[in-house]
């Protein structure tokens, strides 16, 4: 291991969140380094499927010094368009990125600050810093259920982050497990390609794409929903920890209606509970899950109606979603071989993994204990977490605001440190 070197601020993670903090620190003249295990913002190109689109309107894309300025603010960028937009942003400044540098350990130093163990192509080295910003994403580890290893080995299993297109999967039917944003959109991608899709639902709610003449997310932004601090959000912690509402930006944007999928031949089931060999066991909650998702859909429409009435906005008349399909029966046991299911796409989310951070900054579930990204551990902060401050946190819409706050805290601390040194304390 080589000798340690020092930098005032180390940012761990070179995605849009970490780079946004770097943008502000660079403008303030604060020496820092961005440590990225791959290449900057690589996940957009490497971890999204071919037909991926944003689910938020393009005007939500607002990074430091670089708001979306394209010709389609109400459209939805594709994966490749997002990659190009981020590359253009990176051309506007020069962040001090060390690519292909993985941080394998971060620990407190007795004299203050942190020591980081780095792994590079040249070997291991150490880095010390006064402040560390963790920008590795909210939940980096894909979740696969414990019984997955007990299933028939002839069935190909991948996580949603590995999915690229229908042709990568063997011929036959595909089971998609999970109805968050990734699960529903991958199910649709397979369905549109002519594959027989089986879909195991989860508890995710849904939202209308367009309502009363505008995108629902534009209405919600105007209503201040994305700016409301997490502590003030109705329903408390349980509400903000729920999966995001499913909808799609594909082909200009549209609703994701699982009932319509069923009418078109997709096979829907309740939540996947267990499995062994070629037999899967589902909870009998399909009807309840569909009803709950539709209830949220209509509730959001009601909130928008109230806003329109309150602000006396001229808009098309109010409507409500009415179910186009109801399950006649809810299968409990399904034989994969009998249904010709040859592959499974797990889209049941991710979990946190901060085991490499040796600091008392986490709750019993391994999640950072923070307020607007700032922890009780001096010098340790986070950026890019879902609901870190508001619903907009972790999204393009909220990154700039969150990064500005984190950077301002770091800059203030740096100036105080310089002042203490200057007066001899």
From TrEMBL:
Full protein name: FAD-dependent oxidoreductase
Gene Ontology molecular function: any one: monooxygenase activity
Gene3D superfamilies reported in the protein's UniProt record: FAD/NAD(P)-binding domain
Domain of life: Bacteria
Organism expressing this protein natively: Mycolicibacterium confluentis
SUPFAM superfamilies hit by this protein: FAD/NAD(P)-binding domain (SSF51905)
């Amino acid at each position: 291991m080589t000798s340690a070197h020092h930098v005032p601020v180390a940012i761990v993670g070179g995605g849009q969140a970490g780079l946004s903090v770097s943008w502000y620190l660079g403008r303030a003249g604060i020496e820092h380094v961005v440590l990225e295990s791959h290449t900057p913002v690589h996940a957009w190109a490497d971890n999204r499927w071919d037909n991926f689109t944003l689910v938020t309107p393009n005007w939500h894309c607002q990074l430091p010094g670089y708001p979306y300025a394209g010709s389609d603010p109400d459209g939805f960028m594709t994966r490749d368009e997002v990659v190009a937009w981020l590359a253009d942003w990176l051309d506007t400044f020069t962040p001090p990125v060390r690519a292909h540098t993985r941080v394998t350990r971060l620990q407190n130093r007795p004299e203050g600050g942190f020591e980081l163990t780095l792994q590079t192509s040249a070997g291991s080295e150490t880095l010390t810093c006064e402040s560390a910003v963790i920008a590795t994403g909210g939940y980096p580890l894909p979740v696969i259920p414990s019984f997955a290893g007990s299933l028939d080995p002839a069935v190909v299993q991948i996580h949603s982050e590995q999915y690229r297109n229908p042709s990568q999967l063997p011929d036959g039917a595909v089971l998609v497990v999970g109805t968050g944003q990734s699960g529903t959109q991958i199910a649709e991608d397979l369905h549109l390609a002519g594959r027989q899709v089986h879909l195991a639902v989860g508890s995710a709610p849904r939202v209308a794409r367009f309502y009363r003449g505008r995108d629902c997310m534009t209405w919600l932004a105007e209503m201040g929903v994305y700016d409301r601090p997490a502590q003030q959000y109705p329903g408390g912690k349980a509400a903000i920890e729920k999966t995001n509402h499913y909808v799609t930006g594909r082909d200009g944007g549209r609703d994701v209606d699982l009932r319509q999928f069923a009418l078109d031949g997709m096979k829907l089931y309740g939540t996947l509970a267990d499995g062994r060999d070629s037999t899967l066991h589902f909870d009998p909650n399909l009807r309840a899950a569909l009803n709950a998702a539709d209830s949220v859909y209509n509730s959001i429409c009601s909130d928008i109606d109230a806003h329109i009435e309150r602000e006396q906005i001229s808009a098309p008349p109010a409507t409500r979603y009415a179910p186009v399909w109801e399950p006649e029966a809810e299968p409990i046991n399904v034989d994969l071989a009998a249904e010709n299911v040859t592959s499974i796409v797990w889209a049941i989310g991710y979990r946190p993994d901060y085991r490499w951070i040796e600091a008392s900054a986490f709750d019993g579930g391994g999640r950072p204990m923070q307020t607007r990204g700032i922890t009780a551990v001096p010098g340790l902060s986070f950026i890019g977490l879902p609901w870190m401050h508001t619903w907009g946190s972790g999204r393009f819409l909220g990154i700039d605001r969150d990064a500005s706050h984190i950077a301002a805290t770091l800059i203030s601390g740096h100036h105080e440190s310089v002042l203490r040194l200057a007066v001899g304390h």
